[in-house]
Amino acid sequence: MFISSQSSAPSFRDFTLVMPAVAVGNVGQLAVDLIVSTLNMSRVGHIHTDCLIPMAGNNPYASSKEDGEELHTPAEVHSLSSLHTVCLLLFSFVLPLFKLQSKTKKFRQLLVSWIKSSGFSRTVVLSSSHAYQRDDQQLQGTPLRYLVTPSLLKGSADALKELGWREMERVPAFPGLTDGNTEPRLCIPGGGITKGLYTDSCKEDLPLAVLLLFCSEGDNIPDAFALANHLNDWLHLKQPNKWKIPTSWSLLFGNGIPPALF
Amino acid sequence: MATFFGEVLSVYSRAVEEDDDELDENEEDEQIRRELEEKREVHLHWSPEVSESLKSGNKLQCSDFILAVGQNASSFLSVHILSTPNWDTIGRASAWNERSRAVTGQSCEESACVFYRHKDNPTVLICQVSCYVAEDQLFQWTEKVFDCLQLRELNVTVLSDTSVADYKTADYLGGSSAPFLRSLHTSAFGDQPVCQSLEQPNIVTGLAAAVLNHCQVHRIAAVVYQCYSDVIGPDSVTMETYKPVLIKLGRSIQLDPSPSTDALRKFVRTTDLQSNLYI
């Protein structure tokens, strides 16, 4: 649950929540990293839950030695009041273990409950999906897709139309089988809790949007930049110049090379 | 994924697959899940005196809680602190998981997670954890233990073993640099750590991380000293790496700064040979 790191609990009523889903390439998490780092958002609390694997580290957004030694936990909430925007940061993974022990459902319920009680005006989930599972149509054009709940569509239809984004396609349950009774369904392979969160939000009538990129595991930094830029085209969080890369992005592919190797 | 050299590696994505089983669990699944949860539950077994006290609503008075995670950290405390006859065993924790096994010669009473209390200064508690606590048990272990402690003016020190292979640095670490210490502390920790702070992008995981998380959100002063070693198993050089911490611990408890060779030998055994491939 949410625990404030300030003396009193902050109010998020009518704020926009931007949050990642732990998904293929960790693109959503990297994009949120860029947003928090560039906008210099400050931490206002933690989500303390048994659903996430524990980890701890020093400040991943440190700009100097002075603010380098600040402990960060698996799920934190950062805010920028001037933009009425809150970011949920996820530095860890939801406990999967065995299917029967999966905490993903509990974590989704926790998130939905927190979103409802906080009164966010809208929630944007940044996510990704396996590029290799696209069908023939999805292979063409932009890899960006969006989804929006009916509740959010009411207020954002015009903006979304102007942006010209493509809505995530429904796909047949059994591709190749012509069965008139099979409804095409929403499928976000590699998207983690994205689909579940979206369907839960539709049921609960929450204003929520999903912004995702088709991608593969690898160097996903360009994907993170792309997703952050698309989000910025909609929310106008900053002037379109450079995003600030956080210090935690160093050594993403391992240590320095041992000289003895050569 | 594709690497910089062009080869394609098959990589397991850490993204959990979407829940295709939105179908409700059937009764059998639910029963299996409940049984698994019960089996994996963390249990605290306190001495009768402590149990009585906790039952009547009195938490354990605690000014200093020292937690050792790993064989070298535990052995360090055994050699330098627990070797004096001033400690009572007041409890143990059990957490069954896939790595739990009956060790030859060890009865279930010889737990790998034991709590000690100082006889003369009963607000000082030590816990040695030399068993594996699984990822799904870490949060529960921490919540249950801290639920028993009174938290006002509590200071927590965690000594934690880890492999130098997990340490990320731009400059290649030669063989001579390990073992070494790095620290991580909560915002409420007002003292000066005895070693360098853990640099980005390194992180702490496991029980040390779970304790730090708990202390951070509940504003408890806590510090983790993580020892990076290139040796698997108990090793006297790795143990001695924790020595700078003695300066801080010595303020609240009596310790043995120079244990005898016999004392050290007792805790440093030859690792059981599982393979002679690299001898």
What is the element layout, followed by pairings?
The complex is a heterodimer of chains A (262) and B (279).
Chain A: E1 2-4, E2 16-20, H1 27-39, E3 42-47, E4 55-56, E5 75-80, E6 85-90, H2 104-118, E7 122-130, E8 144-148, H3 150-163, H4 194-203, E9 208-215, H5 221-235
Helix pairs in contact in A: 1-5, 2-4
Chain B: H1 27-39, E1 42-46, H2 48-55, E2 64-69, H3 71-80, E3 87-95, E4 113-118, E5 124-129, H4 135-147, E6 155-163, E7 180-185, E8 204-205, H5 206-217, E9 221-229, H6 236-240, H7 245-249, H8 261-267
Parallel strand pairs in B: 2-5, 2-6, 6-9
Antiparallel strand pairs in B: 1-3, 3-4, 4-5, 7-9
Family (chain A): Belongs to the PSMG2 family.
InterPro entries (chain A): Proteasome_assmbl_chaperone_2, Proteasome_assmbl_chp_2_euk, PSMG2_sf
Keywords (chain A): Chaperone
If you had to describe this structure to a student in words, what would you say it looks like?
The complex is a heterodimer of chains A (262) and B (279). Chain A contains five helices and nine strands. With 262 residues, chain A is an alpha/beta fold. The termini of chain A are far apart. In chain A, strands 1-3-5-6-2-7-9-8 form an eight-stranded mixed beta sheet, sandwiched between helices. Chain A has helices at residues 27-39, 104-118, 150-163, 194-203, 221-235, and strands spanning 2-4, 16-20, 42-47, 55-56, 75-80, 85-90, 122-130, 144-148, 208-215. In chain A, 42% of the residues are buried. Chain A has a domain at 10-43 and 80-87 and 96-171 and 184-238: 3-Layer(aba) Sandwich (Rossmann fold), CATH 3.40.50.10900. The model of chain A has no long low-confidence stretch (mean pLDDT 89). In chain B, strands 1-3-4-5-2-6-9-7 form an eight-stranded mixed beta sheet. In chain B, a hairpin with a 5-residue loop joins strand 4 and strand 5. Chain B contains eight helices and nine strands. In chain B, 35% of the residues are buried. Chain B has one domain: Rossmann fold (3-Layer(aba) Sandwich), CATH 3.40.50. Chain B has helices at 27-39, 48-55, 71-80, 135-147, 206-217, 236-240, 245-249, 261-267, and strands at 42-46, 64-69, 87-95, 113-118, 124-129, 155-163, 180-185, 204-205, 221-229. The two termini of chain B are 35 Å apart. In chain B, helix 4 (135-147) packs across helix 5 (206-217). By secondary structure, chain B is an alpha/beta fold. The interface between A and B is large, with 70 and 57 residues. Strand 4 of chain A pairs antiparallel with strand 8 (204-205) of chain B.
